[in-house]
Design goal:
- Helices cover 19% and strands 26% of the residues.
- With 258 residues, it is α/β, with parallel strands linked by helices.
- The longest helix has 11 residues.
- The radius of gyration is 19 Å and the shape is globular.
């Protein structure tokens, strides 16, 4: 039996399962809010074109409007200034092979509950690796912080006068994962792939800067990471093929052991 048919057999037999990592996309989907001097993304909007009526008697369909980085979405290297000159850097030119990779899930829920500004460090990653093995080249590294459960509440953006307070990656951790581990990209449960206070980092939004400057990808606004083991699952996240697109909403999911 071929590998692909074996995969289908394992899924049908329930020995593998598909875990949806995607948050619902609707008008109330949380958005990353930038200071007013910069353009912000429009909220998701959908309107009906016909529903088995005089606008179209046998069909139902809608139109929608949203930003590239709304909801569960993928960031391409061209999204950030550090990746603007890389080859094949927009979503339509990314090699499709890069949408699939093994997942390494790092659980920081306890630390993030105690400190909403928790930042993962290279030392934290290496301690994780002592238990679970070295992060393989081309892996998705997913930060499980318990943040998906906050979605729909003020605690999700966790905004204060000095900006949002959400966990993420330290500057050195982003460099370490991009350069020393050569990951495919990183994924988070928060609105964006940088920590809430990353505007104050050097460089600002350093995860975007180092990941995309290294040709890596980002996944934001994920959910159900608690259903994945630390290792042993495969994540698939394919963006829309938007010409010169800097990102796209995705239906991200994982194939994991049952």
């Amino acid at each position: 039996m071929s590998t692909l048919l074996k995969l289908v057999e394992e899924l049908n037999a329930g020995r593998l399962r598909v875990v949806d990592l995607t948050q619902p996309l609707h008008a109330e989907t949380p958005l990353l809010m930038l200071p007013p001097q910069w353009n912000n993304t429009p909220p998701f909007r959908m309107w009906e074109l016909s529903r088995y009526d005089d606008r179209g008697p046998a069909w139902y369909w809608n139109a929608f409007e949203t930003g590239e980085h709304t909801g569960t979405h993928l960031d391409a290297p061209i999204h950030w200034i550090s990746g603007k000159d890389l080859p094949d850097n927009s979503v339509d030119r990314l090699p499709t092979r890069t949408f699939i990779g093994p997942a390494c899930v790092i659980d920081v829920t306890e630390a993030a509950a105690k400190n909403n500004d928790f930042l993962l460090t290279p030392d934290d990653v290496q301690r994780w690796e002592k238990t679970h093995g070295k992060i393989p080249r081309g892996a998705w590294v997913l930060l499980r912080a318990g943040w998906a459960e906050r979605c729909g509440t003020p605690g999700y953006a966790n905004a204060r006068e000095d900006g949002p307070h959400t966990p993420g990656w330290s500057t050195e951790c982003s460099k370490f994962l991009a350069h020393d581990r050569d990951v495919l990209g990183v994924g988070v449960e928060t609105i964006g792939t940088d920590a809430g206070q990353a505007a104050h980092f050097d460089p600002p939004f350093s995860n975007h800067y180092f990941m995309h400057g290294s040709g890596k990808l980002g996944l934001a606004h994920l959910c159900n990471l608690d259903q994945l083991p630390p290792t042993g699952s495969v994540v698939i996240a394919a963006p829309l093929k938007i010409v010169n697109g800097s990102g796209s909403p995705v239906r991200a999911f994982a194939i994991a052991p049952a």
